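Final report, closing paragraph on structural work. Over the funding period we assembled a curated collection of sequence-structure pairs, and we close with a single example.
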Amino acid sequence: MRFKLATLNGAVLLSGALAAVFALDQGGRSDAAPGAAPETAAAGRASDLELAKAASPYDYERDVQPLLETYCYDCHGDGASKGDFVLDEWEDEEIMMQDRRTWKEVMHHVGSKVMPPAKRKDQPSEEERRLITTWIEKEVFFVDCSNPDPGRVTIRRLNRQEYNNTIRDLVGVNFEPAADFPPDDTGYGFDNIGDVLSISPLLLEKYLAAAEKVMDQAIRTSKPAPLTRRIRAPELAGGGDTGSHRVLATEGRVSGRFKVLSDGEYTLRVRAGAHQAGNEPAKMRLLSGSTKLGTVSVSNTPDTPEEFEQPLRLEKGEVVLAAEFINDFYDPGAKDPTRRDRNLLIEWIELAGPSDYRGPPLPRFHREWLPADPSKVDRNATARKILERFASRAFRRPVRADELDRLMDLGRKVGDGGGEYAFERGMRLAMIGVLVSPHFLFRNELQPEPDDPNEMFEIDEFALASRLSYFLWSSMPDGELFREARAKTLRENLDAQLGRMLADPKAQALTENFAGQWLQLRDLELVNPDRKRFKEFDSELRGAMRKETEMFFDDIIANDRSILEFLRAQYTFANERLAAHYGIGGVSGKEFRKISLADSPRGGVLTHASILTLTSNPTRTSPVKRGKWILDNILGTPPPDPPANVPPLDNRDELHGTIRQMLEQHRQDPNCAACHELMDPIGLAFEHFDAIGRWREQDGGQPIDASGTLADGQRISGAGELRSVLAGKQSGQFTRAMSEAMLTYALGRGLEYYDRCAIDEIVAKVEEGNHRFSILIRAVARSVPFQMRRGDGDRH
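Its predicted structure, as stored:
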């Protein structure tokens, strides 16, 4: 067999099962072993062929092959291989049926009328197109929904955001330990996909360093150093300032003001030296306010300064501490010129104490997890109990006895050394061991024995708790989820737990991580509009753009609105800066608030400045990028990459005129026409919005024409009519696309053709539930792929 995947053009506004197959079979199984060929990994069960034949109303040799020979073989058969795409070189029917990647392309292009090319006079009828696509759907992509395949997710590590959040919820430290980790790779549009979350030697080093830093902040393992407050020469009062010293050339004093935290015993320290003269050393009197504490002889020179101490008792409040020079001497006639003038030089004054100072409060983790006095407890039993609780939370399942034994052995390596804080040092090391364990760093799901790849089973409730928490919170389960899992009541209380989790502030992670990637908001930080053309654009406006869309997504969640509001909402969130950018008055101040768009050409996220800016070029709008963005993210029908031999629109010097005219010229190239006929009308509908999302009536002095004809033949005039189409007759396609994106994110794997049943069920439930956001979340969480999995290993 010879087959190479072509880079044929095409995408379309599709609906129903046709779109489902395109979107779900993205070519390459996320549950296959790394490096496995997608065609091989995607092979179905041995009985699929027979089941499909029974389900299909058509026969390949009798019904389908003659149509392919008539309409396709002149370019893709009988020795022709245009675009390296061939339809008649499979070795046998079994191999042909398993080549789903090829049939996905055929179904896509035939169903969308991209192929045969429009310029060809001999076109298949609607019935013939339907025959081909029905056969592909029923046979090649046959799925037995009464016996669904939930697939499996590659064991995957926590990505950076999940690591930070998990450490936050497990240990409670106030920093982001993953800040300097290498960036996470992305797959299927998200950075939580198991197949792309690899691990490198560098990352292993980062994990160890981060674990040590985390536990250093969580557990105190040594006696706190005495509290000291030191005032150096430049901040002291009195004398002359040399930068490094305060100089008293005559009798006088140098002082500093100190805050006394509590009543108690303190130590006053002064670092000083003196220019010696006469028959005695310099004398320095130490004072607390007006109280004389004592006098010391400063017999050293400034080059060899010494520290002088004086104990004292102080009361809480403020106090002025001083060092006084009391024996000035000056003899200009002395034989030794270096001993003619006695001066006192002071480097700093310091207050240490109180003497019973025990340091700052213990870290919260230390207080909550470790005993106040380890000497008063059974250390071995206490350590085992603490580690069992900690490791079970960190591993997100009950820790095994053998795992706990190894952690105890690790802790004993330093804990058995004795001495103060020995118990704490042992616990710190054992907990570092937990934080670098694969059971913490990776989300693994325990499976029943034997682990049969042909068996489908329900994941246990601890795995379900983890799937839920990382789906909605990008973090570990909380105490309530763990309690439900231990009691095996999580499934029966699933709806209540979903409601609680969505209402929790941690659900903000769904906005940051799902919406941030589904809508590509994260990319806004990388967009840099030309400052000469768009002087208004700055970091403040960029931040306001992103916040608008994030607050809009938050509002959909918080108020359980219809997901169709993403397309049709007549409100948004803005502050004065963003409202002025939109030409909307009556908004003042930096605070964001909900505003009406009833009298505005805007509506839904498609006219948010964030989306319009990130889908533009630095110097102008890009209808191609805007059209592709909608096909990718709103309709779930991404067009393929452009042919390698065709230069981008911006690099074609022979194209001239307005953007619309340049696109019309670009479409004259048959290699470009198929995709651009789909993308361009969508993107041109937004031409009234410039490259940073402002409304405009003209471009380059010419009136803007935002009209176009969609792939299904419908005429539209501007963004408003396009939004009506998307939220109206194309609402099913949007619902399916968002459901696919949400399920992909929730599972951490790309969707496969056999996930079609799950998607169909999710879409049906969302539509029955008036498209409410919570219904989408509930349908995803109750879906077969989310609740179940297939065993590991190769299927047979």
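Residues 228-352 form a domain with the Jelly Rolls fold (CATH 2.60.120.260). The chain has 31 helices and 21 strands. We thank the funder for supporting this effort.
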